[in-house]
Amino acid sequence: MTPTDRGDSASGEHRRRPLLGLVLNADRVIRSFMDETLQEFSLPTPEYTCLVIIRNYGPMSSAELARRVFVTPQAMGYIIASVEQRGLVVRHPDPSHGRKLLARLTPDGVALVDACVDRLKEVEQRFLGALNPREQRYFIEMFTACVDHLNAQRNEA
Amino acid sequence: MTPTDRGDSASGEHRRRPLLGLVLNADRVIRSFMDETLQEFSLPTPEYTCLVIIRNYGPMSSAELARRVFVTPQAMGYIIASVEQRGLVVRHPDPSHGRKLLARLTPDGVALVDACVDRLKEVEQRFLGALNPREQRYFIEMFTACVDHLNAQRNEA
DNA sequence: CCAATTTCAGTTTAACTGATATTA
DNA sequence: CTAATATCAGTTTAACTGAAATTG
């Protein structure tokens, strides 16, 4: 590609792709696979995301969940209400705090999210399949570090 | 965490996070940074995505763009119409194909997308900042391989 | 009173499905 | 006729903003 090109390079040839584009692309493809897979469980992806966070980090309030996934408390309110109505979580007041309602997975909720995680391992392997096991571990380690690093900066503000 | 836990592990302690959750989380945080940054250019992220793909791969039709980012042709139709109306791309019939309209960046379009890519490098570094330069190169290389691998599978179907 | 959380109500973005027209 | 593309029209998902109620 010449220094004066105008974005009309020949087919096949292209510039180094920006990382952010890669993440956006990865998200879109992975989302389409996930939506498809989770549909078997009649579970929308935003609800799965909420459940798997509680599974990984323990009971928390709707407001805390909202901060973790960077949506408004109102948006998370709808998501948590939906999984509560379905009996996947229960909410009880946190005695040590104000109005806070701690959402905890029910046995049904744990069973469902674990089944989903298990089923999604296939999708995960379709993504990681390009790498050998050693590379996979290293890749996940680096990815985790980057996400944590970015999360930390967002939460500073 | 015990084998009989019910997702109520103590604070700080948690299971290994699923990769797909990492990607979703990364997408959400990066999207919030990108939306914010691109707002300086009054450019919605889906429109930026469309422009940067043409920048990287050369002129292409709306239908080709749609396949590349996994949205319906209709959805991409609105996006391309918007950037066309703004004078960032022009479309001309492809003589060698049917109804196809090839979208090509205008000089304004090239200037805008390059300015965005440059500005977004800061966001990129906030993400990659957790890694040293050597790790960054390796990470992007592995990420590219994974995304290409998954894209290839999606396009098989 | 204040700050955090929850929730009601309406709005917007950005995708979707269905149907139709055009052209090699 | 078929297949790909483009586009008109309406729908849905999943976020958003604004405002109000609750509680330590």
Fold and architecture overview:
The structure is a homodimer of 157-residue chains. A three-stranded antiparallel β-sheet of chain A has the order 1-3-2. The first copy, chain A, is mainly alpha-helical and 157 residues long. The model of chain A is unreliable at 1-12 (pLDDT under 50). In chain A, a hairpin with a 7-residue loop joins strand 2 (89-93) and strand 3. The radius of gyration of chain A is 20 Å and the shape is globular. Chain A is built from six helices and three strands, in the order ααβααββαα. The longest helix of chain A has 24 residues, at 133-156. Chains A and B meet through helix 1, helix 2, helix 5 and helix 6 of A and helix 1, helix 2, helix 5 and helix 6 of B. The structure holds a DNA duplex (24 and 24 nucleotides).
What's the overall geometry of chain A?
A: globular
Tell me what portion of residues of chain A adopts beta-strand conformation: 5-15%
| Mean pLDDT over all positions of chain A | 86
What fraction, in percent, of the residue positions of chain A are helical? 55-70%
Please tally the helical runs of chain A, counting DSSP H or I stretches of 4 or more residues: 6
- Find the count of extended strands of chain A (DSSP E, 2+ residues): 3
> In which order are the strands of the major sheet of chain A placed?
1-3-2
Low-confidence stretches of chain A: 1-12
- What structural class do you assign from the helix and strand content of chain A? mainly alpha
What is the succession of H and E elements of chain A?
HHEHHEEHH
- The Rg value of chain A, from CA coordinates, equals 20 Å
By oligomeric state, this entry counts as homodimer
Q: How would a crystallographer describe the biggest sheet of chain A? A: 3 strands, antiparallel
* N-end to C-end Cα span of chain A: 40 Å
Largest interface: A-B, 72 and 72 residues
